[in-house]
Amino acid sequence: MSFVTQDDVFAAIEKLFTGLFEEFCPHKFTPAPFPRIPYREAMLKYGTDKPDLRIPIEIRDVSELFRGSDFNAFRQVVERGGVVRAVPVRQIADRPRSFFDGLIEFTQEKGGQGLAYIMWTDHGVKSPIAKFLDEATLRALGETAGMQAGDVMFFVADQPRKAERLAGEVRSRLADLLDLREKQVFEFCWIVDYPLYEFNDERGGIDFSHNPFSMPQGGLEALETQDPLEILGFQYDLVCNGTELSSGAIRNHRPDIMLKAFEIAGYARAEVEDKFGGLLSALRFGPPPHGGIAPGLERVVMLLTGSRNIREVTAFPMNQSAQDVMLGAPSPVSEQQLRELHIRCVMPGRQKE
At 244, is the secondary structure helix, strand, or coil? Predict the structure, then answer.
């Protein structure tokens, strides 16, 4: 859509989805306007940018409470730039030891070192790590999430990105084990304010984090004056019950802003002109500000029908080998078809003619 803001796109899509769910959904759903959750908040509270808001668990950052503690394992993580994420859960302290051991094993299977936890009881706290924490720290941890007798707080400690993911995995696993997801409801939300850049450990420098062709918030001035890792893009996703239904952006329509954006990510002007010359040429003719979004119809149908796999509602689903078994594709191509399309296939090990 031309000459639109992010709000204009949201208004159009919310009207569409509200109409769809009023017509076809027998359950309640989030009324418009849908909540907007900044990306960084979503990663902190839910450990994912596709949060299932039916789960009544919010993750907390408790890194500072462990920075000066006697619990060396967590303190050292924080001192090395890592974080500690807490996952508070209500009224499960009476679960058997096997329940907690199973969660520890699950976290290790997902790549974590383990999973610590503290129980709040009528007689105080119980935990293998409680002896390393003073009363003030234990009290602060309890106040962080309003812990009461019967509640349990789980802890993940690692580098930020990994800790976010692990905490999110634990949150989802707890929802499965305890059947915490609210029934017969569709919880919509927008994920907004995606970072335009991230630090690429392999390259050792700044790189694009999501869509490089999105308009940076603040335009050229932001690119010239702000820390790249603090610059946000006009990018957004529509999420429902943990499933991404739509993704879109306000596009970068100015070549000067695009060249600067790629320069920050380590691309020389000549390289950008070579790789994206067609796009830059088009932008130099002065297209209007524009933006949009791409709803995934099959994902909507999957939710409305209660299907657990999108292949169940896909007309021509592919198998795990990326083959369409109904159409028999992909299939060998005849020499005649290749000649008609002026295509030559060179088999491995053979020299070109």
Answer: strand
